[in-house]
Each structure stands twice: as C-alpha cells, then as structure tokens.
Amino acid sequence: MNRRKTVFDALLALLIVVAGGDGRRRGGPEFGKGLRFSGSGSFRIALFADLHYGENAWDDWGPKQDVSSDRVLSSVLDQEMPDFVIYLGDVITANNLPTQNASIYWDQAISPTRDRGIPWATLFGNHDDASFEWPLQWFSADGIPEIHCSVANFTVAGEKGCSFRGTTRIELMKAEIIRNSLSHSQYGPKNLWPGVSNYVLQISSSQDLESPSVFLYFLDSGGGSYPEVISYAQVKWFQEQSQAINPFAVVPELIFWHIPSQAYKKVAPRPKSTIKCPCVGSINFEEVASQEGEWGMMDTLLNRSSVKAVFVGHNHGLDWCCPHGQLWLCFARHTGHGGYGDWPRGSRIIQMTEHPFSLTSWIRMEDGTNHSRVSLLPVPINLK
Ligand SMILES: *[C@@H]1O[C@H](CO)[C@@H](O)[C@H](O)[C@H]1NC(C)=O
Ligand SMILES: *[C@@H]1O[C@H](CO)[C@@H](O)[C@H](O)[C@H]1NC(C)=O
Ligand SMILES: *[C@@H]1O[C@H](CO)[C@@H](O)[C@H](O)[C@H]1NC(C)=O
Ligand SMILES: CC(=O)N[C@H]1CO[C@H](CO)[C@@H](O)[C@@H]1O
Fold first, then answer.
1. Is this entry keyworded Membrane (predicted)?
2. pLDDT tens digit sequence for 72-100
3. Is 300 in the pocket of ligand 2 (CB under 6 A)?
4. Ligand 2 nearest-atom number relative to CA 296
C-alpha cells in the first residue's frame, strides 16, 4: 500500500511539473501562494465587472465617473469584506484614453482592493486594449485637429502632432504583476496569445495548503485588438489543464471570462421580460451580446461534472443566472460608473463553503442593499 502511495505521489509530482505548476506566469496553477478557505471553512469573492475607468478622460464627466466608481468599489469591499476580488474585464475604456500608458488607469481601478490588503485577479474585456479613437469634437469645422495633447501624457509624433499608441494586454498585465504582490493575475501560456488572461488559480483547503478545494479558471474572451472569441487552442488548454490537475473531476471548478458565450442566448429569459424561475436576477433590459463564434468551450464545460458555473460581464443591463445542463450561466452586475446604461451599480458576490461544498451568490448594491440570492448547487437534473 505504502509503495503504491509513493508511486502515486511521484506521478502526481510529475504531473504538476508537466502542468507548469512551478510557473506562475505560464498559466499553470500556483501552489502555496495562499488562497485558501478560512478557518471557518468559507471563501467569498466579489466580481467587479465593466468598470470602464478612463472614459472620456479629456472631459469633466469622465474623471468624475471614475471617482464614483471608486466609491462603488469601496462600498462593496467594506460591506462584504471578500477574501478575493475578480476584475471581470473592461477595467478601462482604452479607446477613450489619450495617454501613453493606460496602466495608470488600470492601477486606479485596482487600488481600492489593494488599499484594503485584499488579493485579486484580472482578466481582459473588449475595451481594455482597444486603440484610441480620436473624438470627432476634437476636429474643428474646417477639419484641422485642435491640439489636445496636454490633457494627458502623450507620444509626440514628429514636430506637429500627438499620437496615442495604446497599451497592449501584455503591457497592462506586466505593469500590474510587477508592482503588486497581492495580484494573482498571469500572462497565460504564450501559445494562446493574443488571448492573454488564460490561467487557473487554486483555492486550497483550510486544513492543507497542498490540497485543492476549488479551481478558478480565467479565460480571455477576446475583443479590442482581436475578435471576440474563445479559440480552439484555449479549449484544448482547458482540457489539458483540467485533466492534469483534476483528472477525476472531484474538485469543483468555476469559470470566468468577459463576453458571454452563445449558450447564454439559449438560456436567456426573453429580453425585457420578467425574469422567471429557474433564472434568478433583477435586470433583463437587453439582448445577450455574445461572442462571435463557439469553438467547443461550452460542450467541454457541459461535459465536465466538476464545472459548476460560468461568470461573465459585458452586458451592463443583465444580471441574471440561468441553469444550463449541470452548470449555471451567470452575469455579474455592472459595477463601474463608466460604460453605457444608468442602472444602479453593484457587484455579484460568490460565497462558498468547503465542507460540504456549497456555492451561493447574490448582488450587493452600492447603496448597501442586496438581492437575487441564489444557490448555484445543486441544479435539478430535469432542467434543460
Ligand atoms: C507603464 O506604467 C507602468 C506603471 O507605472 C510601468 O511599470 C511601465 O513601465 C510603463 N510602461 C510604459 C511603456 O511606459
Ligand atoms: C464528452 O464526454 C464523452 C465521454 O467521456 C466523450 O466521449 C465526448 O467526446 C465528450 N465530448 C466533448 C465535446 O468533450
Ligand atoms: C440582504 O437583503 C435581505 C432583504 O432582501 C435582508 O433581510 C438581509 O439582511 C440582507 N443581508 C445582508 C447581509 O445585508
Ligand atoms: C494623466 C497622466 O498620465 N499623468 C502623468 C503624466 O506623466 C507624468 C510624469 O511622467 C506623471 O506624473 C503624471 O501622473
């Protein structure tokens, strides 16, 4: 028996090395970095979706919106005191940023979390690395650009103008990771680029740091500098990772990306109708704006009993969760004051317990109220 255990341990160690367990920046799970269930066996996550910092950075109202977003983040963090925060994409509105280095705005978005000593992870949406779009109002009637370069940092292009290069996904991630020990973000494996935020984090058992209790998977659903897709390469990466670190699918897995997959359209309540059971939520004011294609990610997730739920942002006017097979498809809640729509701001909270495993979610509003509490376990088998 002992000998078999030793062989098993050796195989496991080999698997961990093969899976890149030593490489925090290569998309493998990080071990021993300390995300774990509390002594009382709980773990709470706040999702910050669609903050859109830096919107209309040259106007008065843009920076004012950012101050309002700071207030939402602080309010949610102080009320919920989460163990972990996930920035679910569209952290900044890069297409509005006449600046050399959008990391300054990215940093503003993470600072309320960092100031409270709470660890976090980020992933990319479709606005984060979008290139700057010159606003029409900068051009006078006779078509000569006004010089607005002094409003923010800029790159001088030749003698007479300014150009704004935009900040790439890699640069944004690098600036975050280098400067923040509380950041759990990763660049993901190079073979998945231009998709960058592809990685998995382990939440360990309260009893044993080596023992995984939950895996969190982050995927880059594209947009901005490339199409809004999850590629087949990402699907394969997920399959290989999950096989390597959770071969018998016994550890629960939660999935996070920005743009809803096409499956969200299938389970969605009719747009603008009342949200009815089995879906749970409070706003349903738009059609699902889904990814441009489906390369097999949803089939893979549906096939894996350990996957419990997918969480996305992107649609500011939707905040529901609906079941899909054995898993739940959930929207976060529009958290930032940037971005379209004026529905009240809030944050989807995810609460887990370890023994027995439970997964509950609700939405915490900026004004302190909460609603849409739902247990994401278990899904009744007879639901579609
Ligand atoms: C952008 O800013 C970050 C943070 O200040 C810095 O680490 C990084 O080097 C800057 N990048 C460029 C291209 O200026
Ligand atoms: C689902 O699982 C079955 C059985 O393990 C396998 O044969 C099938 O190829 C899987 N389908 C997908 C899309 O992963
Ligand atoms: C959440 O809201 C309900 C009413 O909808 C209230 O009874 C409950 O106390 C609230 N919970 C927290 C933690 O604020
Ligand atoms: C708005 C902005 O980007 N301001 C920065 C421009 O660069 C100077 C010095 O490099 C910084 O101090 C500003 O914060």
1. no
2. 999 999 999 999 999 999 999 999 998 87
3. yes
4. 13
The contacts found for 99-102 with CB under 8 angstroms, 24 or more apart, are 99/54, 99/57, 99/152, 99/153, 99/154, 99/164, 100/153, 100/154, 100/155, 100/164, 100/165, 101/153, 101/167, 101/171, 101/175, 102/54, 102/128, 102/166, 102/167, 102/172
The candidate with the shortest Cα–Cα distance to 42, out of 308, 354, 349, 350, is 354
- Domain that includes residue 104, residue range: 24-131+166-375
Is the CB of 104 inside a 6 Å radius of any atom of ligand 4? yes
- Say if residues 191 and 168 touch (Cβ distance below 8 Å): no
Closest to 108 (Cα-Cα) out of 44, 46, 65, 58: 65
| Residue 279, domain member (yes or no) | yes
Distance 294 CA to ligand 2 centre (A): 16
Name the closest-CA residue to atom 12, ligand 4.
153
Is 29 inside any structural domain? yes
**Centre of ligand 2 from the C-alpha of residue 303, in Å:** 6
Q: Is 187 a domain residue? A: yes
Looking at the domain assignment, is residue 62 inside a domain?
yes
Cα–Cα distance between 187 and 173 in angstroms, integer?
7
Report the nearest-CA residue for atom 3 of ligand 1. 175
- pTM of the predicted model, to two decimals? 0.87
Residue with tokens 């704004």: 164
Q: Which ligand is nearest to the CA of 54?
A: 4
Q: Give the number of other Cβ atoms within 10 Å of residue 342's Cβ.
A: 9
Give the pLDDT of residue 9: 42
**Which CATH number covers residue 98?**
3.60.21.10
Q: Give the whole-angstrom CA distance, residue 306 versus residue 321.
A: 18
CB 42 within 8 A of CB 214: no
Nearest atom within ligand 1 for CA of residue 167:
13
Q: Is the CB of 152 under 6 A from ligand 4?
A: yes
173-182: pLDDT as tens digits: 999 999 999 9
Copy the structure tokens of residue 304: 């894996």
Q: Is the CB of 177 under 6 A from ligand 1?
A: no
